[in-house]
Amino acid sequence: MADVPFLAHPRRAVAVTDSLPYFELSEYCAVHSDRVETVFRTLSYVDVVNHAKRAHAPALFSAGLADDITPPSTVFAAFNHYAGPKDIAVYEFNGHEGGGTRHLRAKLDFLSATLA
Question: How many domains does the structure of the chain reveal?
Fold first, then answer.
């Protein structure tokens, strides 16, 4: 159950949010502009998007469309690359909590259906 998966597509995250921790990457790259490609190549080793294609278990993702910590477009990048059966719960007015207690109910329903 990938609630607002963190560190998915960091290059995109840096482009669309100035929230921490991505702001720190922007600051570092501003000072070390000669290392930008090295920074993002290194981050690619932990980028969730690059690992999602190897996952095959059923998955439930969540995205809060008002999330400035884990931008929705990065969540959808991970979701779109996920190789297994998947579903995503989208919460239009939620932020990083990704649906909060409402999503807890969705996770319990997902577990019930998946483990039955």
Answer: 1
Closest listed residue to residue 59, CA positions, set 76, 79, 45: 79
Provide the whole-model pTM: 0.91
Backbone angles phi, psi at 61, to 5 degrees: -100, 160
**From edge to edge, which strands make up the β-sheet containing 59-64?**
2-3, 59-64, 86-91
Cβ atoms within 10 Å of 14's Cβ, excluding its own: 21
Tell me the mean pLDDT in the region 13-24.
Answer: 94
Q: Which domain holds residue 94?
A: 2-115
> Cα(38)–Cα(74) distance, rounded to whole angstroms?
20
CATH code (residue 80): 3.40.50.1820
CA distances from 55 to 37, 91, 98 (A): 27, 24, 22
